[in-house]
C-alpha cells in the first residue's frame, strides 16, 4: 500500500461489518489510525482486533448512533486515543423494508434516527475536533435517496436527507477547510444483506442471478465503496467538497421495479 492516509485519524460508524469494516480495513492499510464505532460490541471488538493483527492501528468504541451522548463519546475517544481527528465516515445504517402502509411512527423514527440523526450527531461533535487542521467527512448515501423504492419509504427519506445534509454542511464548512462529500454505493452483498435474503428463503445462487441483471453483471463488494471513501479522505481530494460520488456500477441508471431493492 502507499500510505495515502499516513498520520491521519478516522472515525467510522457501523464499522463492525459490511461496508464499514471494509472501509476500516482499507483505511488502516493505508496508514490511518481508525476508530470503529458500532452498536455490536463483540463484532466490533473482533473487527478492531483483526486490523491490529494485520499491523494496523484500530480502536473500538461501543456506540449507538441514535444516542447523542454515544456519538459525542465516540469522537472524544478518537481524540483521547490518537490526539487528533482528520476524518469521519458516517456509515451506520438500517434499512428495514416497509411500504407506506406498513411504516409505523416508531419504525419511521428509528430509521431516521439511525440513518440521518446519527450522521448529524457525529458531524456536530467531529467538526470542532477537525477545526485545528481541517478534515474530511464522508457520508454513506444510497440510490434509495434518489429513486422511488415503494418498500423502503423511511430509508429512502433518510438517505435523501443525507444528500441534503452533505451539500448543506459542505457549503457551511468551506472556510474551516472541512470537506463534506457523499458516496453512493450500489448493491453490495454484505453479511446483513445476505442474512436478510436467507431469512426470506432465498439462496446465494438466487442472489448471484440477481447480480447478473445489474449493469456490470455482478454485485459489488465493500471494498468498491471503501476505495471511494479512501479517495475522499486523502489529500488527493483537497479541492473536492459537496460531491455526490456514485460508486454503484450503474445501478442508479436502471428502472426500479416495485418491491425491489437494488442498492
List keywords for this structure.
disordered C terminus; 8 helices; 15% strand; alpha/beta; Rossmann fold; globular; 263 residues
Summarize the structure.
The chain is an alpha/beta fold. The chain has 8 helices and 7 strands.
Instruction: Give the C-alpha Rg.
Output: 17 Å
* DSSP summary: helix tally: 8
Give the end-to-end Cα distance, rounded to a whole number of Å.
Answer: 29 Å
CATH superfamily: NAD(P)-binding Rossmann-like Domain
Biggest sheet, spatial arrangement of strands: 3-2-1-4-5-6-7
CATH topology: Rossmann fold
Helical residues, percent: 40-55%
CATH architecture field: 3-Layer(aba) Sandwich
- The SS-based structural class is alpha/beta
**CATH class wording:** Alpha Beta
Number of domains: 1
Ranges with pLDDT <50 over ≥5 residues? Answer: 257-263
Mean pLDDT: 90
Please trace the helix and strand order, writing H or E for each element: EHEHEHEHEHEHHHE
Give the overall shape: globular
Strand content: 5-15%
Instruction: Characterize the biggest β-sheet.
Output: 7 strands, parallel
Number of DSSP-assigned strands: 7
Can you characterise this structure?
This protein has a single domain, classed as NAD(P)-binding Rossmann-like Domain (Rossmann fold, 3-Layer(aba) Sandwich), CATH 3.40.50. Helix content is 44%, strand content 15%. A 7-stranded parallel sheet has the order 3-2-1-4-5-6-7, sandwiched between helices. The radius of gyration is 17 Å and the shape is globular. The two termini are 29 Å apart. The chain has 263 residues and is an alpha/beta fold. 44% of the residues are buried. It has helices at 18-29, 41-53, 68-82, 105-130, 153-172, 191-199, 204-212, 222-233; strands at residues 9-13, 33-38, 57-62, 87-90, 135-140, 178-185, 244-247. The model is unreliable at 257-263 (pLDDT under 50). The longest helix is centred in the middle third of the chain and has 26 residues, at 105-130. The chain has 8 helices and 7 strands, in the order βαβαβαβαβαβαααβ. α1 packs across α8 (222-233) and α4 (105-130) packs parallel to α5.
